[in-house]
Structures are given as C-alpha cells and as structure tokens.
Design goal:
6 helices; globular; alpha+beta; 17 strands
Length: 348
C-alpha cells in the first residue's frame, strides 16, 4: 500500500541535528543525523552486529557508533571501526538511503537509490520564498495515510468539524469541480458573495461579503496542497484577479509510518503581512487546533475501520477528489508491483 520510488517528508529541517533521529517510513526503520558540515545521513536503523537500533547509539563526528559494542559506520553504511574485528573495516554493512533537504523539510527516498532524483522533490517554493511567510508543525496520527488524503480532498467536512473557525454551510452548498490525470487530482470550489468565516474575516480585516476559494491539489506519493483565500466580492478573484484579497497555500505532507499510522506534516504559507511574526505564530497555533479536530475524527474512524474489516467505505459525490487520488495511488502501486514481480519463463 506504499509507493517506494518517491521522496517522503521525514521531518522539519531543524528537527534533525548531530544526534540520532529515528523515524519509521513505510514500515522501514531509518536513523537520520547530521555530519559536522550539516550534511545529512540516512541509514537503516539496525546495527549489523547484534541488530540493536543504531538510534540507541551516538554520533561521533561524521560517523554513528552503536551503543552496544561500538561498531562504527560512516554515512554510507561502511564500517569504520569494530573493536577486536579489524577485517570488517571498509565493508558496507548497513543500508543507506538517499536523503535531501529542501523547502524547510528533510526528504528520504526509500526505493531504488539509482532512481532518486532531487528534481522530483515536491515543489513547495512558497515555504522558502521570502515573499511568503510559512510555518507549521507535525502530528503523529493513528490512521491509514489515505484517510488523511480523503479528508483533505473533501473540505465539506469543515462545515461540521470546524464550525467555529473555517467551516460554513456555504461549503456544502457550493458546486465543486474534480479533475485528474495520471499523477494528480484537483478539486476546485468557489463560494461567491458570502460572509467570510471567522478565520478569514480576521485576516481580511473585513466582514464584508467575499468570494472564497478552495483548490485542493493531490500529488504522489501522498501530498495535498490547498490554494485557499478570500477576496472582496465582485473584485475579480474567480477570474484571476486576487488583488483585493488574501491567499494561503496549505501544505499537507502525509508520510506513512505503518499501515495504520502516519506522520502528518502541515503548515500554511501566506502572501499577506509576511513580516508579521506574531501573526505567523498565531496562524500556526490556530491551524494546529483545527488539525487537532481532524485527528480526533480520523483516529476514531480508523478504530472503527479496524474493528470492521468486512466493511467497505461508501463513496458519495463529495468524495470524488479522494476517490480520484486513491485510484492514482492504486494504479501506480499496482504498476510497481508488476515490475517487482519476477518474470516466469514461458512454457512451450
């Protein structure tokens, strides 16, 4: 149920330092650390000697030292030292992973290293563009990562889960358009001439009627970027002129840990009051509270699903975006499985 040949967000860049940092990605236990030059290392979190997690050890310069018997590996997984066993030095004993740093996140490639191309890291230029302000956080969520994708591709839930912040009945009343191709799915909704909900009214600094938009974009392996905002009604936002409004890009990066747990990295980039650090913190904290409401729903949903393995999810019209995203995932996972399956010789 996981795509292998993809970049997954591991953590925010500041979280990984010159100390072992353990994280499980798609059922693979990996240890990360920084070298003195701040370069990143990603190794299988397992000492090849007695299989103790390497994250239980320590980082010594550019190397990691097992906390059991002192076996020392470099950033490529090559043995540098082992007490009383000099003949293993110079041998690659641990699996290493391609790792990169971009747009304030650390990324890991868990598939074929030969296919790892940093140009395919998701484009999150808003997160590092000085013309935008961005901050966020991470949650560990006890649910299948695909439930998070479903949630983010169907924002009608905001009306019921987030009624005091970003939800309003107009979301459920406004038409939506769903499009998709081989790799992406998009759900577009415009709400015209409506009263802005509390969050947007506060940041627009107006309770006047507005045009509100939500454009949800899914991309592989499990990323959803949502173009959101409001503009004073009738000023041209639906036609492309957002000059009388404010825009945010909600960043949602779902990194599967196991079949029923996910690391959810979230944030919001904005193009208004970008020098106002207090507002950045305020929006981050408000967003954290909103997503905490989602997590309560998603974890309860997962518990119900796990208790009823014979039941299938029921899809309605509002689920078109999530269904499209799941179909894209299923298609790519099936194609990868076919490639991985050994060819059986033809019997003549």
């Amino acid at each position: 149920m996981f795509l292998q040949n993809c970049w997954y967000a591991v953590a925010w860049d500041y979280e990984i330092r010159q100390a072992p940092f353990a994280r499980t990605i798609c059922n693979e236990e990996i240890v990360f650390y920084r070298k003195p030059d701040r370069g990143l290392v990603a190794l299988e979190d397992c000492c090849p000697h007695r299989l103790l997690p390497l994250s239980s050890g320590r980082v010594d310069g550019a190397h990691i030292v097992c906390g059991y018997h002192g076996l020392t590996l470099d950033g490529n997984g090559t043995c540098i030292a082992m007490p009383h066993q000099e003949n293993v030095c110079g041998k690659k004993l641990a699996k290493s992973y391609p790792v990169a740093e971009r747009h304030r996140f650390v990324w890991v490639w868990i598939g074929d290293p030969a296919l790892a191309d940093t140009n395919s890291i998701p484009d999150l230029h808003w997160c590092s563009n000085p013309d935008w302000a961005h901050d966020g956080g991470s949650y560990h969520v006890a649910c299948d990562y695909r439930l998070l994708i479903d949630n983010l591709m169907d924002l009608t839930h905001e009306t019921y889960v987030h009624p005091t912040s970003i939800g309003q009945v107009e979301i459920t009343e406004s038409p939506m358009q769903t499009t998709s191709d081989d790799n992406t799915a998009t759900v577009t909704r415009w709400m015209r001439n409506i009263k802005p909900p509390p969050f947007w009214a506060a940041n627009l600094k107006s309770n006047a009627a507005c045009d509100r938009w939500q454009i949800c974009n899914f991309s592989l392996p499990a990323n959803v970027l949502i173009d959101v905002g409001v503009a004073l009604a009738g000023t041209g936002a639906p036609d492309g002129d957002r000059s009388q409004g404010i825009t945010g890009i909600v960043i949602d990066l779902m990194t599967p840990e196991t079949e029923t747990t996910t690391w959810y990295h979230w944030g919001m980039a904005r193009n208004f009051e970008t020098d106002n650090q207090a507002l950045t913190v305020q929006i981050r904290d408000a967003q954290a509270a909103v997503f905490a409401e989602d997590i309560a729903v998603l974890e309860a949903q997962q518990r119900s699903i796990s208790a009823r393995p014979e039941r299938n999810l029921c899809n309605f019209k509002i689920d078109k975006g999530g269904v499209a995203a799941r179909r894209i995932l299923e298609k790519h996972i099936a194609a990868a499985n076919r490639q991985d399956k050994p060819k059986v010789p033809t019997v003549l």
